[in-house]
Amino acid sequence: MSHGEGKDKFLSEKENLQSMRKKKKLGKDEFAQAISRNMVAQVCESLGFQSFQQSALDNLADVAVRYIQEIGKTASSYANLANRAQCNVFDVIQGLEHLGSVQGFSGASDFRHCLTRSGVVKDIIRFVSQADETPFVYPIPAFPVVRERVLDLSFSQAQETPPDKHIPGWLPKFPDPVTYAELSSSNEKDSETEAVKIQQVEQQNRRAERSLLNWQQKLMCNESETGAVVEQGDAAKAQRAAENNPFLATPLQSRENEVSLPCLPARLIHESLGYGYHQSHEVMENHVQIMKPSLQASGAARSGPCELEERRKIPLIGRANLQFKVGNFKKSLSTVTKPQNNGTERTSYWFGDDRDEADEKNDRAEKILWENTEYPPEVSNV
Amino acid sequence: MNGQTSHQQPKDGRHDDDTALTEFLASLMDFTPTIPDELVEHYLAKSGFQCPDTRLTRLVAVATQKFIADVATDALQQCKARPAVIKDKRDKQQKEKRLILTMEDLSKALREYGVNVKHQEYFADTPSAGLDPASRDE
């Protein structure tokens, strides 16, 4: 239990604490608080403590800081009481007496005593004579550091006349016109960089578009492997062409694409309600070429989940004429065409952004209905 | 401070006290307290204490150091006074107790000085932690 060993342990603990504290976010007074913690730890160590609890050290450091502040406050208030702005030694001694009155000191009851003979002073003198002189381990710069502000010149200081009569000369100058004027020489460069950026963005969009529609094509091709799917060689070009303009796509032969009944499973609808854009692809897979080019272009041009809001009411029984209107960025009014079949027409909303409770009830009813129909929902298409 | 009286002894007495104080303040400049001057100046300036004299800042620093030393000494005595928990197999050797500054000792020591520091003994995960099973079911 040698003092030297204890000191090393103490210092290493201090260093650990310091490194730990570096990771924390620093507040306004962090530096001073850290120093106060170090200082208190040093004092404790000189008395014989070997280690400390973190919270105990924080508390003691806080108490020490408050003690200093309390002395300062009391001393300055005594000075102000004596009609002075600056404090002198007697203010400090009075402050110490005030703080020491809790614990008590010799001669405290004698209110007429001379301050130079105060008990607190004697205690301090005794303490200084007995204590080991252990200066603080780290050299500290004077803080807080005051940054020198470079003030802007005023009109009169810069010996300039203000541009207008209403501007007085003691106000700071206007900044140089160079700083805010656009130069013609830099415009070309900007436009070039802008063009490059636009190209990059377009490329990204095309890539996203392609990947999404590839996936869509794959799903479609699960049933039939014909025309729309091209070999790997020309795949990219043909797909791009097909994606951009459906009229340029290779025409389908009759019975080429066996489209199953567009009886999308009710469960699928219910599950995917609210997914928005992604749902649109699952819908599209069953309806081959009925998509409008505008839908494709607008849908594919956005990568990732988009704000495309579509509302389609699609009758689920039988193959009916499908028509939908697509609204971009707005909730669109959609019209429903009555199917020719007389079967029970059920409509469902693909994107239930504004579903009513009645619609939800309808959906539940659909679900129950579907469970008992001849044509069970074909999940294999998905 | 410069009390001019006819009596010799009180004058000497007062003079002694004055000289003692001045000498003490002068000696403070030689003694380096553990509390750095910059820290003390920072906090004194924060609380409105204005004095260009460095001897006064040293006085405040020394007073604070004395205060902390007193508190820490009391805490140390509390720590030593507590019976050691560890049982040594070798009874001949004296129990080596690790002197740790704990919240418990510190709060007891600070209470003497008028500072009330209350510390949470433990923190529970859930509101029902530590309750009887019967009451927990409720």
What would you note in describing this structure?
The complex is a heterodimer of chains A (382) and B (138). With 382 residues, chain A is mainly α. Chain A is 48% helix and 2% strand. A two-stranded antiparallel ribbon of chain A has the order 2-3. Chain B is mainly alpha-helical and 138 residues long. Chain B is 54% helix and 1% strand. Chain B contains 5 helices and 1 strand. The N terminus of chain B is likely disordered. At the A-B interface, helix 2, strand 1, helix 3, helix 4 and helix 5 of A face helix 1, helix 2, helix 3, strand 1 and helix 4 of B. Strand 1 of chain A pairs parallel with strand 1 of chain B.
Topology:
The complex is a heterodimer of chains A (about 375) and B (about 140).
Chain A: H1 3-23, H2 30-47, E1 51-52, H3 54-81, H4 89-100, H5 119-130, H6 177-180, H7 184-221, H8 232-244, H9 266-272, H10 277-284, H11 293-301, E2 309-310, E3 326-327, H12 357-370
Antiparallel strand pairs in A: 2-3
Helix pairs in contact in A: 1-2, 2-3, 3-4
Chain B: H1 8-28, H2 37-46, H3 54-81, E1 100-101, H4 103-112, H5 133-137
Helix pairs in contact in B: 2-3, 3-4
